[in-house]
Amino acid sequence: MMIFRRICLVGLLFLPMSCADFTPPPATQLTALPEIRARFDSFPPRLAPAVEAACNRPEQRVIYPTPELIECRTLMPPDPTGSLIMAYDGTLTDLPETVIRFHSTSDADGLILAVSFFIDVPQASGGHLFVALRSPALTRRFTAILRELGGTPI
Fold first, then answer.
1. How far apart are the first and last CA of the chain?
2. 8 phi/psi in degrees, rounded to 5
3. In this structure, what CATH number is given to the domain that contains residue 148?
4. Count of domains in the chain?
5. What is the pLDDT of residues 36-54, one digit of tens each?
6. Distance between CA 78 and CA 95 in Å, rounded?
7. How many CB atoms lie within 10 A of CB 9?
8. Is residue 136 part of a domain?
9. Tens digits of per-residue pLDDT, 81-90?
10. What is the pTM of this model?
11. Of 74, 81, 91, 100, nearest to 22 (Cα)?
12. 89: CB partners within 8 A, 6+ apart
């Protein structure tokens, strides 16, 4: 299925970053997470299996924090991990992860599925700091994936 390959390719965009030259995003990018959104008549049945298939490497895990959320979480290589911990007052006991989050909400016209990309940096003082990942390439790819799943981008 084409949907599995596209999500796998997008998931791989997070790890091959230039670890030696990694610079954490500036603090100005710590505002609300940007989303790609699409309208569906009902929840796309191929979404969860596609995420499960694409997020299956040893450094990855799929979680379902609520019935409306699916997340693919990926541990990063040591250099960017260390940079993020230092830049954002992270902790060594709970490491930063890149996250692809799918969030669904129902309304009178059907369902809206939103996708966001961010780095979750657990804080030494408690809580979590979300650092937005802004990427035209990710936006284009996930817009295409949402269309392929039967959604209409909004």
1. 25
2. -60, -45
3. 3.30.310
4. 1
5. 999 999 999 999 999 999 9
6. 10
7. 12
8. yes
9. 999 999 999 9
10. 0.81
11. 81
12. 123, 124, 125, 129
The DSSP symbol for 123 reads B
Q: Tokens at residue 57, please?
A: 């490497």
Q: What is the DSSP letter of 90?
A: B
Q: Which contiguous run of DSSP H or E holds residue 4?
A: helix 2-12
What token pair was written down for 1?
Answer: 């299925």
User: Is the CB of residue 117 less than 8 Å from the CB of residue 135?
Assistant: yes
Containing structural domain, residue 103? 2-8+34-153
- Whether the per-residue pLDDT at 110 is higher than 50: the answer is yes
Closest C-alpha to 133, from 120, 144, 149: 120
**Is 67 among the domain residues?**
yes
Contact call for residues 115 and 51 (beta carbons, < 8 A): no
Contact 76, 97 (CB under 8 A): yes
Q: What beta strand segments (E) does 13-68 contain?
A: 36-40, 60-63
Radius of gyration of the chain (CA): 16
**Residue bearing tokens 């694409």:** 54
Report phi then psi at 48, rounded to 5.
-60, -45
Contact 138, 12 (CB under 8 A): no
